[in-house]
Amino acid sequence: MKTTKTAAAFAFCLVLWTISAAGQSGYQVITVNDGGTITGTVKWSGPLPKIAAIPINKDPEVCDPQSQKKRDLERLVVGSNGGVANTVVFLKDISKGKAMDLPEEHQFLNQKTCRYEPHLLLVPVEGTLRIKSSDPLLHTVHMSGASDYNLPFPFANQTVSRTMNRNGLVDLRCNAGHVWMNAEMLVVTHPYYAVTDADGNFRLTNVPAGDYEIEAWHEGWKVVGEGAVYDVMTQMRVQRPVFSDPVEWTKKVSVSASGTASVNFVISDKRPEMAANR
After folding, report:
1. At residue 60, what are phi and psi to the nearest 5 degrees?
2. What is the signed CA dihedral for 133, 134, 137, 139, rounded to 10 degrees?
3. Cβ neighbour number for residue 70 with a 10 Å cutoff
4. How many domains does one find in the chain?
5. Measured in Å, how far apart are the chain's first and last C-alpha atoms?
6. Which residue range(s) make up the domain with 199?
7. Nearest Cα residue to 160 out of 108, 106, 123
8. DSSP state of 175
9. Alpha helices in the chain, H assignment, sequence order
C-alpha cells in the first residue's frame, strides 16, 4: 500500500515537473514581425469509453433543476464530428515571442448549478483567476497542485480573485459535498496555448517563424477509484471520483513567416506513446 502511494505521489510530481518544463520559464517577449499561424483539430478515434455519471445526491433543487438525477463528469467531451473539446494545444520549445494574450473566458470560473464553467482554465503565471458562485448554497473551491487555495463561497454572486504565482497543473474540486464538481487549470508562462472548442478546433497566432514541437494535452478521462473527503457543511465523510493521469500527444511543426501551418491530432484510448505523431 505504501509503495502504491509513493508511486502515485511520484507520478503526480512528474506531471507537475513536465508541465513546468514545458512552460519555458525564461520566455522573452519580443516584437514578432511576419508571425505565422498554426491551426488544426483534435479528434477522437475509436469507440468512446463508458464513463459513469455521478448521482446528484445533494442540494438537488439547485444542482439538478431539470431533475436529471445524475451529472456527467465532463472529463471527455466529443462532438458529433469527433472533435475533442477541452484539449490544451501548446508549443513546447518556444523561448521568445508575443506578449501574453490568453483568452479571458478561460481565466474566469463560475459555479453554476453545481458545475464549473468552464471546465478547463488557462491562466498566465502571476495572472489573476477570478471565481464566482452563481448558486445560493455553500461551495468551496479547493485547489491542489501548483496552487493550494481553499476558497469558501457561502453566498450567491460572490466573486473573489487570486493570483496564480506558480506555473503547473491545478486540480479544482468542491469540498462541500458536491463530489461530481471537477475542473483543471494550467498556469503557464508563455502565450502559445489554446483550448480546443466544441468541434476540437484550435488556433495559435503570431508565432515566430521556426521549427517547433507542438503538444496536445488532455486531462485524462478514466475514473480509477474513489477518495474520501469531508463535506465541510455536514462534517460527514463522502466519496468522490479519482481520475487517471493526463495524457499527451506530440508532433513537429514548421512555421514560415506570415504563413499558416496545419496540425491535426487524433487521440484515442491507446497509450499516448502509441498514438504520438499520428
Report:
1. -65, -25
2. -20
3. 13
4. 1
5. 37
6. 2-275
7. 108
8. S
9. 2-22, 60-63, 272-275
- The CA–CA distances, whole Å, from 116 to 139, 182, 222 equal 11, 7, 19
Task: Give pTM, 2 decimals.
Answer: 0.88
CATH number at residue 48: 2.60.40.420
Tell me if 113 sits within 8 A of 133, measured CB to CB. no
CA 54, 246, 152, 9 dihedral sign is: positive
pLDDT tens digits for 194-223? 999 999 999 999 999 999 999 999 999 999
3-state secondary structure of 242: strand
Chain segment 41-100, per-residue pLDDT in tens: 999 999 999 999 999 999 999 999 999 999 999 999 999 999 999 999 999 989 999 999
Q: Count of residues for the chain?
A: 278
Q: Is 265 helix (H, G, I), strand (E, B) or coil?
A: strand
